[in-house]
């Protein structure tokens, strides 16, 4: 049986490519683009996430005297009533919204400062040193994230009641620091992990002491993580309700607890007006966080 001879290729002819029975099919979705189904699913998820906030904003403009949804008419009546409650308490309120807001700000700022002062050296030690029990310490730091808040509040209440002194507002500050430590330590540790030890070694070679190298080199480079941890600590403390409900006193009522007591005493849309103010403050803090550091140094 004879074998067919290959066809000779003339000079200048381009090489022939192998022929496939079916041409390859290119995907209609390029990298970085969302398909229609994925985009629709993402839109549904975002809408469901924003639905409570949209409902709250809608109810704050209601003209009805009760919690009627959807409102039949809209007005600024309840915002005027909210402003009156802010400047002076009603007969049914134990204190004004302004006093509760002041307590929340004092507790949140104190929590932010104390948690940051504790977290910076703790994060540095956890990232740089090896010691016995290090995994256990890391688990204890993250424990408030998974510990039931009701049991944490009850446990702290029993401990504080045993103490011979009345701590007052420091009850709330201690509890909020415990809740904020996972966020501040994680963010500071993420910044330290991104800083190689060669920076400190270079500073020491140039004559700086280890402490001076830490202050002049490491801390400025940790700035994104420190700022992120501080803002997260403030947000966590400012919005905390469950643990605070076990520990607050009549003179140490925070804004979330005051909103709850207001909801129990009078079911009117005023509480939605106050909630809108809280959400605006939280959005402003998140916007500030994004403007200061963006995604750099943020660890949840």
From TrEMBL:
Its main location: membrane. GO terms for cellular component: plasma membrane. Signal peptide: none annotated. It comes from the Bacteria. Keywords: Cell inner membrane, Cell membrane, Membrane, Transmembrane, Transmembrane helix, Transport. It holds the Pfam family BPD_transp_1. It is a multi-pass membrane protein. GO terms for biological process: transmembrane transport. It is found in: Cell inner membrane; Cell membrane. Residues 101-289 form the ABC transmembrane type-1 domain. CDD domains: TM_PBP2 (cd06261). The keyword Cell inner membrane applies. InterPro entries: MetI-like, MetI-like_sf. The chain crosses the membrane at residues 39-61, 95-120, 140-163, 169-185, 226-249, 269-289. Belongs to the binding-protein-dependent transport system permease family. This is ABC transporter permease. It comes from Paraburkholderia panacisoli.
């Amino acid at each position: 049986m004879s074998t067919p001879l290959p066809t000779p290729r003339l000079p200048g002819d381009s090489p022939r490519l192998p022929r496939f029975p079916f041409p390859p099919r290119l995907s209609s979705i390029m990298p970085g683009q969302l398909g229609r189904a994925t985009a629709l699913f993402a839109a549904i998820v975002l809408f469901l996430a924003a639905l409570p906030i949209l409902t709250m904003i809608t109810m704050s403009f209601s003209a009805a005297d009760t919690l009627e949804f959807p409102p039949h008419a809209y007005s600024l009546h309840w915002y005027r009533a909210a402003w009156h409650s802010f400047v002076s308490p009603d007969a049914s309120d134990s204190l004004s919204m302004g006093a509760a807001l002041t307590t929340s700000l004092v507790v949140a700022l104190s929590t932010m400062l104390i948690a940051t002062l504790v977290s910076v050296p703790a994060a540095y030690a956890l990232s740089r040193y090896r010691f016995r029990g290090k995994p256990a310490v890391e688990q204890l730091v993250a424990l408030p994230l998974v510990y039931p808040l009701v049991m944490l509040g009850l446990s702290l209440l029993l401990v504080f009641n045993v103490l011979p002194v009345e701590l007052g507002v420091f009850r709330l500050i201690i509890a909020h620091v415990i809740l904020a430590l996972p966020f501040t330590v994680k963010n500071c540790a993420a910044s330290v992990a991104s800083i190689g030890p060669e920076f400190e070694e270079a500073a020491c070679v140039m004559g700086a002491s280890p402490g001076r190298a830490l202050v002049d080199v490491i801390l400025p480079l940790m700035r994104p993580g420190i700022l992120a941890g501080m803002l997260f600590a403030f947000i966590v403390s400012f919005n905390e309700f469950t643990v605070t409900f076990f520990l607050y006193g009549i003179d140490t009522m925070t804004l979330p607890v005051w909103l709850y007591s207001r909801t129990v005493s009078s079911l009117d849309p005023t509480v939605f007006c106050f909630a809108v103010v809280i959400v605006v403050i939280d959005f402003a803090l998140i916007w500030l966080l994004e403007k200061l550091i963006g995604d750099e140094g943020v660890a949840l």
